[in-house]
Amino acid sequence: MFELVWRGVIIGIGATMLMDLWAIALYRLFGQSKANWAPVGRWFWHLQYGKVFHDSIADATPYKHELALGWISHYAVGILYGIVLALLAGAAWFAAPTFLPAWILGILTVGAGWFLLQPGLGIGWAASKTPNPTKVRALNLAAHTVFALGLWGTALLIR
Length: 159
Fold this sequence. Notes:
It is built from five helices and no strands. It is an all-alpha fold. The chain has one domain.
């Protein structure tokens, strides 16, 4: 079991790093906004006070280290997802990793963003309060597909 958890940590880090590289590529090639993990850090900070959903996270009381907390949370969630895949797929998957289990998990995890984080930040269910919800949703699906590629690719590397 420890071996699976360790492998889950590694693939979670690898997948999150690939997702971050994807975001950098979108920024440099297409002018997509840079990732800003400070609002996520602020959201995580306010969870300790029982506040899950905000009308606007920008109106919530700032936290001095929210950017750092946002980055830590981003990687912690990626690692958690890696561990979940490792435990669900098991040692046999690590012996011969396939993309499908990673992709299914990647797509399922979009739901956490759409139905917990985004409404928590005040941008509505599945980004419904943003100027272009369809674009945000498509980018979310693409990013989580890249995350899945990172899970799978990292599993291939550590096989």
